[in-house]
């Protein structure tokens, strides 16, 4: 999305369609601000899984050719479980890069670590030369997630790159869902670690409520959004306008600092993204469902696989299990957390005390680790490994619970466990991340004997909470993805699952440009002290004084200063120069300004005194019209204007004007 | 009147009359009044004053005292009223001028006392106590005390306002009491007084109803309801004619805040002869309420109408329509058109959360009563059932229809109140014959509730109850077993692993109840075992929560009674092993109680539990030494069943036993002794927990009766080893005391108790114990000591003796 805010008019454009992985650009005053750069990884679902250990099943898949034999893509496409998958390294769908010259972006504001995964694509290949702002946990955990993604990809290199299938003519002939994939040409392979490092070197760290000036024109401030460690909403404001950017916020009591709602008040525009993806599932219920399914499987002697990201909900899952384990007699069951960044993720979470909720913060002073997973690790109940290779394979004990990535089931250690456990109905896979359709994720593993449970835990705001929040903060206008303005397609009767606001929110979709519905009216200008000293204010109403000012306006770095007019230097009498001087506009003292209202009765009396007696007064909506019948003239008295109409009688007009002026004050 | 109490009375009166002494709390004064009242109702209490001059002195001192504690003054007012309820005392008190002083507050030395609510309350109570005879009534009327009573009707204290209603109702009733009373009243000049006071009261009530102030109207309505409930004909009709007009105005006002009170009045009038008298227009009033602008009022009124017997058919039909309307409207079931106005009225209130939920729950709960009591003629029960099912689906967000009622849906989704209420109704609808073919729909929605992860624990419990009810009417078809096997049991397995203990608990309870209901069904038993439910129950025995373990014990116990035990002795042995571990080691008492109950139920059942039979003696000894008295009581119940089964004795039938029987019985008694049953009974007999000793005593008595009937004295040959038993000492003391009493021996306190022989015959032992006496003593509650009038009086005296120094030490 691109939102232009022009001085006199506001417009919008849009590039990304994913409401929870936003990438918006806001043009505000003279700055161009990118809000988040989320990476849509759902495109990976079209690809074959990348097995860590050689899988005979996956290596023996038949290639795909059209039935009539005209198209043969046996090398690029494989048939697996009745579906066709692309056999190459998975590719991701980037935010739109064509709509706007991204080198003009001045800053990028990141709201949480899930929404920065496309950063290397933006900062490294578009000529971007600005700064990225993010909080420290966002930066650190974002780095971990990128590092994990790169490791997942680089661990199993695939030389082959599939491109033929993307040909429009060919794609049309492919079976679904490949046929319906959109923008396939813009899909890109994963970035490298070098690109990640370079991108992250452009990040400048900020703290909550810290005010950052951008070129003197606008000020940006991150606020706690309560969704994840270091997650933020942003306030972008000038002296007279305020835009709030709300992305991925949560009002639930989980591990992060609670959401700062009050600072969002009095916004002219509130951009709302990152609401819950599963509005029908209540996180508490899902957490309960997660625990009971886990316990049921373990009791029956099976293993549990939890495909998840290595940071975020996993902290809450571990905390919940910590409390639940004893009550469910799971005390001896080992929990494994396998990720290249498992260790760092668990340790990072413990050191960001200032970014945690009050309850956890206070533990630090005891001193105790804020998260109970420290105790799980200490007591050997939770073990973490960088990968299934090495130490893990020797210590692995079943039945167990394994947390590992990637939730798309296309790469990472999870692929191995799917191959290992998929055949037994004793085992269970529990999906907790809401980003991927679990049925699509499971497609290449069919037929699957393993039990499958879908417990998506999305703690972001739901529609009920949003409407409460908006009632509270009362923005003048709300801008949101179009998905939020109608009920989900699968539940068209659920009118409670959409935003209903007055005035209705402005909706956007990928590649749209939006003019924001408010005009900028004011700009702050400073007066220099000597100029201020020279002002002669006169009171026009109790408490309100006015003064006229003659000055030179200097605008520099988006700051405007009124300076005294330089005095003309005394000119030596030279004929040549005299002519030049005449071209300089002469500085005349301005005409006095008039103010006040004309009291009708007194005015009539003064007309009478001047000999104008035949006056017919007519009341109008704005004031009065006086017909001077003998003189054949009209005087229109309105609140903000007075007109004297008389035909070719200049002396009369002047006389009447003077009469009017007598009642007005001069400045 | 007990002499002990009477001797204490003068000093108590002195204490009460002395304002300088510390006073007991007013509950003891209340209890004292209760005692007076009780004594006066007995014949000897009628002339209490002449025999107890101290009471009169106390009252006299109250009338003369300048500083009187409000609590004591209030007590004195009540007491005066109570004493004056007897005619002779009344005369005496009137002579002494005490009645005038007490009941005319203008005469009080300290007018401030009236400001105290307890004093006003005492005044009313005293008046109520007094108004028992003609003279008192005359006194009441002549002194125009009714004016003050009516004034108190709007008192800010609710207790006083409500007491006023009672006093007025009592007065009005008394004017109509008995025939001879009436005739006296008619002939005496007093009758005119009475009639005028009665009219005054009625006019006052009508005026209150027509008042501009809502508080006055409300208290008027409350009063009307009380008076109508209590007063007799023809007074009721007289009153009704006075209040009908303002009442009709109120009913047509359609003010929601008055609904409840008007309904209370209508409820009373509808259950009286007023209802059938056309001139009383009760029916018209009800119709006005039914067609109220406020849907809630309409539904409440409809619920009331449908509870009435002999209700006119048209009114009943209208009420039924109103009552069903919210449910049918929300679920888009249309029965008959109501007209746009009616629909819009309901629609408006159903789209607001605040009125929607109460409206629907009221409608639902009345429907349950309605349908279950008598089938509705013109409304198919099936339609109602399907509506309730749709409503349940809506509450889960599963309903897909037009967006028309979207506003209502959004606040019904996830609403626990509506869910619980609907599940209750669905459960009770199972009892209707017409619903035989809706079983599938009902079970489908109930399973949906079990599946939903967001459902509240209480809602799950209601779901369980409803499923039980529907299962009990189901014909056991293959489909049903499929449902149980494939849908129900997997869900229950998951719920047993839930994080909330309430859910685990109610699920196990449900398994137990379901098993009990479907016990005889081999398919069910098969499914139970095939799905691994038994192992789930075994795992739940080690749940962290005591309640859950208890429910698991109960469920397992029930499940094992369904099994063909010949085939599953290993299962039985395992269960007994687990249960014994719980009985020995569990720190919570609930699971231990449950274990004892399960063992008892097993013994009662016709099945043979060999594994239990082997461990009975340790069960009895564990049960008897438990710290929890309830476990002990359950152990005694087990002992009872054991005795019954071995001795085959029944306390109500008298057998004459043949000698061959006797040998069998001796053997059985021997067996009981080996199991340690007698040891258990005697040990429990001397327990300090009353229910335990009571139960043990009852069992010993039963045994004694049995032995007396079976053997002549001393012929049982059964001897008990008593040395080393924990109860032997206590036993010895008692026997010794008894002996001492019998023989009036002059042994002194310090004398040694003689040793009892090591062995004693059971028969002799039972005879030595005075079991009947012990049973009588233990049947009295501890209350009888603490609440006796003597103890109350002692408390009062004790409180008065306390000075500031010793007040800290007391208790």
From TrEMBL, chain A:
<keyword id="KW-0963">Cytoplasm</keyword>
<dbReference type="InterPro" id="IPR022712">
    <property type="entry name" value="Beta_Casp"/>
</dbReference>
<dbReference type="InterPro" id="IPR048660">
    <property type="entry name" value="IntS9-like_C"/>
</dbReference>
<dbReference type="GO" id="GO:0090101">
    <property type="term" value="P:negative regulation of transmembrane receptor protein serine/threonine kinase signaling pathway"/>
</dbReference>
<comment type="similarity">
    <text>Belongs to the metallo-beta-lactamase superfamily. RNA-metabolizing metallo-beta-lactamase-like family. INTS9 subfamily.</text>
</comment>
<dbReference type="Pfam" id="PF21382">
    <property type="entry name" value="IntS9_C"/>
</dbReference>
<dbReference type="GO" id="GO:0160232">
    <property type="term" value="C:INTAC complex"/>
</dbReference>
<keyword id="KW-0539">Nucleus</keyword>
<feature type="domain" description="Beta-Casp">
    <location>
        <begin position="314"/>
        <end position="442"/>
    </location>
</feature>
<dbReference type="InterPro" id="IPR001279">
    <property type="entry name" value="Metallo-B-lactamas"/>
</dbReference>
<dbReference type="GO" id="GO:0090287">
    <property type="term" value="P:regulation of cellular response to growth factor stimulus"/>
</dbReference>
<dbReference type="GO" id="GO:0005829">
    <property type="term" value="C:cytosol"/>
</dbReference>
<dbReference type="InterPro" id="IPR036866">
    <property type="entry name" value="RibonucZ/Hydroxyglut_hydro"/>
</dbReference>
<dbReference type="InterPro" id="IPR027074">
    <property type="entry name" value="Integrator_9su"/>
</dbReference>
<dbReference type="GO" id="GO:0032039">
    <property type="term" value="C:integrator complex"/>
</dbReference>
<dbReference type="Pfam" id="PF10996">
    <property type="entry name" value="Beta-Casp"/>
</dbReference>
<dbReference type="Pfam" id="PF16661">
    <property type="entry name" value="Lactamase_B_6"/>
</dbReference>
<dbReference type="GO" id="GO:0034472">
    <property type="term" value="P:snRNA 3'-end processing"/>
</dbReference>
<protein>
    <recommendedName>
        <fullName>Integrator complex subunit 9</fullName>
    </recommendedName>
</protein>
<dbReference type="GO" id="GO:0160240">
    <property type="term" value="P:RNA polymerase II transcription initiation surveillance"/>
</dbReference>
UniProtKB/TrEMBL annotation, chain B:
<dbReference type="GO" id="GO:0005634">
    <property type="term" value="C:nucleus"/>
</dbReference>
<dbReference type="InterPro" id="IPR011989">
    <property type="entry name" value="ARM-like"/>
</dbReference>
<dbReference type="GO" id="GO:0005737">
    <property type="term" value="C:cytoplasm"/>
</dbReference>
<comment type="similarity">
    <text>Belongs to the BRAT1 family.</text>
</comment>
<dbReference type="InterPro" id="IPR016024">
    <property type="entry name" value="ARM-type_fold"/>
</dbReference>
<dbReference type="InterPro" id="IPR038904">
    <property type="entry name" value="BRAT1"/>
</dbReference>
<protein>
    <recommendedName>
        <fullName>BRCA1-associated ATM activator 1</fullName>
    </recommendedName>
</protein>
<dbReference type="GO" id="GO:0006974">
    <property type="term" value="P:DNA damage response"/>
</dbReference>
<dbReference type="GO" id="GO:0008283">
    <property type="term" value="P:cell population proliferation"/>
</dbReference>
<keyword id="KW-0963">Cytoplasm</keyword>
